Amino acid sequence: MRYLPLTQQDRAEMLARIGAASVDDLYTDVPAVARRTGLVDLPLHQGELQVERALKAMAAKNTPAGSTAFFVGAGAYRHHVPASVDHLIQRSEFLTTYTPYQPEIAQGTLQMLYEFQTQVALLTGMEVANASMWDGSTATAEAAMMATRVTKRGKVVLSGGLHPHYADVTKLICDANKIAVAACPAAIDGEAKVVDLIDSDTACVIVQTPNVFGTITDLAAIAEAAHAKGALLVAVFTECVSLGAVKSPGEMGADIVVGEGQSIGNALNFGGPYVGLFATREKFVRQMPGRLAGETVDADGKRGYVLTLSTREQHIRREKATSNICTNSGLCALAWSIHMTLLGEAGLRRLAVLNHERACDLADALGGVKGVEVLTPRFFNEFAIRLPKRADAVVETLAAKGVLAGVPFSRLAPGTGLDDVLLVAATETNTDDDVALYARELKKALA
Amino acid sequence: MTQLRSTRGVSGGAADFETVSGSRGGLQATWLLFEYGAVDRSGVDLPAPKGRPDRLGGLARTAPIGVPGLSEPEAVRHYVRLSQRNTAIDLGVFPLGSCTMKHNPRLNERMARLDGFADIHPLQPVSTVQGALALMQELSRWLTSLTGMPAVALSPKAGAHGELCGMLAIRQALIARGEGETRRRVLVPSAAHGTNPATAAACGFIVDEVPGTEDGRVDVEAFKAKLGPDVAAVMLTNPNTCGLFERDVKAIADLIHEAGGYFYCDGANYNAIVGRVRPGDLGVDAMHINLHKTFSTPHGGGGPGAGPTVLSERLAPFAPVPYVVADGEGFKLVEHVEGQEFGRMVAFHGQMGMFVRALAYMMSHGADGLRQVAEDAVLNANYVLARLKDAFDAPFAKYGPCMHEALLSDKELRAHGLETVDLAKALIDEGFHPMTVYFPLVVHGAMLIEPTETESKTELDRFCDVMLALEARAEAGEVEFFKTSPRLAPVRRLDETRAARQPKLRWKAEEAAMKQAAE
Questions:
Q1: DSSP label at A307?
Q2: Is the Cβ pair A46, B273 closer than 8 Å?
Q3: Could you give the residue range(s) of every CATH 3.90.1150.10 domain in chain A?
Q4: At how many degrees (to 10) do helices B457-475 and B352-388 cross?
Q5: Residue A259's beta-bridge partner residues?
Q6: Of B7, B414, B416, B466, whose CB is crowded by the most CB atoms within 10 A?
Q7: What is the least distance, in Å, from the CA of A290 to any CA of chain B?
Q8: Residue B208: which region, alpha, beta or left (left: phi > 0; alpha: psi -120 to 50)?
């Protein structure tokens, strides 16, 4: 067994030192009825070759995005990740270390987190960011709870453009904590409608831009209306590359900005692991969830970094903590930070333009197909189209032709009456041929 | 697991000199990337845009963003230099109790990066991801067989998220029974991980602490006294955070069930019993499994983890969506269930990347190897305990063997004017990552040592030799030596109090410019 160093002789010597006759003597505290003598009914150990063969057979039954013309988004996006990112995150010292509890021998992780926090703050236009959350959806739920702590109010308002899964996760946590949730009905261009639902008990409004239909919204007026009534504005995004092209939520008055960071540095991975980004204003930092790296000095006065403000966290504050989060998404945050460093502002801006232009190409091509209507008025790299038939059926038809055409809105939110709406995303990875193939096959499917 | 004690280092004692460059031999000096990157420098080559008019509706970002870039050689060097300031399991013993820092097999990394797993989208048509659903189903088979539990929810993203899954399932079950408003109290032993009370509170429950006994277990009499019609559940870690098996676990399970509550088991320490004890046989109703502990997926400097949660027959109907079901020849992904109240915990289907790694690990070890994993982990911990228990105070050693981790107190150290943190920092200079310190809270100055099964006897002997040698120095009264440790790490002891009092959580261009002007 290749991962186990002890030999039978080692085991015998160690048992002798312990004063136990056999390893069974070490399990005597286990109630007799629960002691299993035989093996669990599962296969026995195997070599690398055999395991690799079995797993490759499973992998071969999936259709990788890269083997198709791929236009699926709605919360996860296929981008090119530079080769050096994956090489660097696989360095032992990053991959096989723990949360930096002993800062003197974890300065690599801590400085990286400090840089990550700075990058996230700059990108979102906010003052401070934490060291990552599990993903965009859980970060959104955490933002809702944080807003209730900051305002000491008990109601949260969700926009009709918030990703339905994000709304589900947020409702789940709010319900358990008796926080009222008022949700606007699904709307392609109705983020500002949240303002109508603000009352004197509203802790925050949660809006998404670009929203799940791809629509970009100016948040300034929403921020003003929310603030006038003592509520916070939580801004959500699922595509962080958009921040290279679209005005940041911070510039538009958001109080908390959360989103999915997967697009930068991280593969699709069938939904995880991803990395939640979480940023806010300095005055709210003590109500923030999650870990924070901070600068300090060592005994010689030299600059160094530590985890700080941990009196907010579960391991100190227990049931009074700002969140139960412990393990976050450190290695995905590292991948994000490395990719962002490789891009730099110039690279990020160009990447964002390439995404936007590709989406414009796609909108033109699909909008030119008879019976198809582009619904999204302003977008970054994702938009919604209305089809003359059910979107899920069209998606299945096109999948057989090598085109993964997008996400039927009904898959995210069944029963909303939008069964003919398809969410479509384009990125820099799509070629002219991909776009042409999609339009051609869509035309055939609708003929 | 935790570092509760603030440190403020003492200078002096370093027999050292300053280099001109700031580097120290092979250890290169580092700067923040903001101090030498540039907004117009990049490590990627992207084609020129076509320059077509935008459809951003007048919301283009025109103000500077300010994120600097580095070329590829600079970026590679930046992060390799940073990496050299970390220690890691691949470098040496990393005996963080409760964290299970075992070897991370590289086969797992290779498998997780197969295009068929890494390059698939969670919302692709299910007809194009049948292999991924098959893998989730196979992982479920292993987890339910090993634990003796009928169902598993795969979507939780980490251990604490798994706790949330279990406790919300309990909440839904109580609501279904019409007791959602009356059963609000959750019993949590004093030795529990901080996530347990934090999770219970995050689910809207009221936390009630149960004291422990002198031998490091839950006080069953005190537990019994706290039971009542308002109790929703007990959250019990087993093996517990003192590294001990709860002997009365069956009685506790029976008592909570008789009282109408549920038994949540924190499975953080499942690695001690995998293949030998099935939580299902102990009366557990819900238990999360940290794939990044028991099943070897890498900790990555603080995640990502994965926290699949096994559920009893009683709780299975209250599991979150999505889940996979067999559908004729293939598999179906159930993403919405009419009338099911739990709903969804996370945007997608869980940590697929971790599922692949964990399954590769399970298949590599097999039923036989996994049992050996538990036995060797327990053997290694007991060996360390046997070697250290006379030199240090081991408060529970006299009551019998430990499980996968050995617990010491700071009694011996205090007698010499030292604290746990001082020993921890001295261990750093010896090339070892310190054990978990100041946790669990029930032991003064706790030192929780979890060697894991992937340490050889030779490595354990080296570690124990160093621990004993340091204890001898403590006994010899070398207080100054300890208080000025570490001397040989990339930085000296860091001032955590200052970091918390004057929080500086990011680099700021204005501050940097002011500092430069002042210099």
A1: E
A2: no
A3: 66-80+345-446
A4: 50
A5: A237, A277
A6: B7
A7: 11
A8: beta
Closest-CA residue of A relative to B94 is A97
CB within 8 Å: B505 and A97: no
CA distance B114 to chain A (A): 7
Q: Which positions ≥6 away from B45 have C-beta within 8 Å?
A: none
DSSP category for residue B59: -
Contact A21, A15 (CB under 8 A): yes
- Determine, for residues A343 and B44 on separate chains, whether the beta-carbon distance falls below 8 Å: yes
Write down all domains in chain B, each with its CATH number in brackets: 108-362 (3.40.640.10)
More confident residue, B98 or B341: B98
Please name the residue of chain B whose CA is at the shortest distance from the CA of residue A165: B347
Which CATH number is A83-338 given?
3.40.640.10
Distance from CA of B390 to the nearest CA of A (A): 12
**pLDDT (tens digit, 9 = 90+) per residue, A148-191?**
999 999 999 999 999 999 999 999 999 999 999 999 999 999 99
Which residues in chain A are closer than 8 Å to B201, comparing Cβ atoms?
319-321, 324
Chain B residue with minimal CA distance to A337?
A: B79
CATH number of A66-80+345-446: 3.90.1150.10
Of A41, A63, A104, the CB nearest to B486: A104
Nearest CA in chain A to B118: A269
Total CB pairs under 8 A between chain A and B: 735
What is the total residue count of chain A?
447
Look up residue A289 and give its amino acid: P
Tokens of A224: 């003003």
Give the residue range(s) of CATH 3.40.640.10 domains in chain A.
83-338
